[in-house]
Amino acid sequence: MDTSSKSSNNAAVILVSHGSTLPYAEEVFIEIKEKFIKATSLATEIGYMKVSEPTIAGAVEILKEEVEDLNKIIALPVFLAPGIHTNIDIPQLLGLEPLEVDPRCPDGNYPPEHYLSIADDVDFDGEIELLESIGPRDELLKIIDKRIDEALADSKLDDSAKTGILLVTHGSRLNYNKEFATALYAKFEKTCDLPSSFGFMELCGPSIPESINKLVDENDLERLVVVPVFIAPGMHTTHDIPHILGFLEDHEHSHDHNHGDHVHDLTPVEFDGEILYPEPIKADDILIEILVDMVNEKL
């Protein structure tokens, strides 16, 4: 990349993340940021929606200090699928209009304690361009295949064991996450020779137990690779899903997104075979290439 031509644009990038109470999620995004900067030489900062620092408004202030005469910020949500966060929360946190009406609060009058009410306003006179989420790109299949290969390399069973693959995503109140998972799985199914399916952790179906039970019953499986299609490790990938898979003791995770409490159904699955559970996407080089391509299209 010609870094001198890029810097002349007086542009910078915010990699937008949800934020997590667990430190290793932040560690992953720091690595994503460092790899992204190395690949582009663009001024780049992480902006967290909540919980973690810097906030989105804080990221803008950091970039204003770093880039002289900054006149454009590209905000890239490092989210796999669109949803409430990408279409409603992040635009408002950037000082932009939401892309649709918020089903949690249709009148737009959030409670005083809501994170959209307490967030600092963005102070920036230049252009802010908000990109879409990553979506069901073909490149993600390469990462999924890598995680499957890594998991099978640790298997205690031999190659003849009847093996199935389950892709797991979060789920959403809006239909976008299900559309993402369905589209990604449709691509994956065409490339996978093993019995496979997908399931959602919450908010829509099929659930992880439903998908596992169906996949196991229909294929008489001895081994199952459960691939978490998440960017970074967090409470869901390190606690909720492992509990469902029977890796953890009794555990209840109830959390508040400031739009109503909900409790995950963490009923463990019943499967006597081997379950392999690889890491999520993390700062995989293929992910960095995707992010770089998305930003380059706007420069």
Question: What does the model show?
Answer:
It is a single chain. This protein is α/β, with parallel strands linked by helices. The protein folds into two domains: about 5-135 and about 285-295, 3-Layer(aba) Sandwich (Rossmann fold), CATH 3.40.50; about 140-275, Rossmann fold (3-Layer(aba) Sandwich), CATH 3.40.50.1400. Helices cover about 40% and strands about 15% of the residues. The protein has ten helices and ten strands. It has helices at about 5, 25-40, 55-65, 85-95, 115-120, 140-155, 175-190, 210-220, 235-245, 285-295; strands at about 10-15, 45-50, 70-75, 125-130, 165-170, 195-200, 225-230, 255, 260-265, 275. Strands 2-1-3-4 form a four-stranded parallel sheet, sandwiched between helices. Helix 2 (about 25-40) links the parallel strand 1 (about 10-15) and strand 2 (about 45-50). Helix 2 crosses helix 10 (about 285-295). The chain starts with a helix and ends with a helix.
Secondary-structure map:
Layout: H1 3-7, E1 11-17, H2 23-40, E2 43-48, H3 56-66, E3 72-77, H4 84-93, H5 115-118, E4 127-130, H6 138-153, E5 163-169, H7 176-191, E6 196-200, H8 208-219, E7 223-228, H9 235-244, E8 254-256, E9 261-263, E10 274-276, H10 285-296
Parallel strand pairs: 1-2, 1-3, 3-4, 5-6, 5-7, 7-10
Antiparallel strand pairs: 8-9
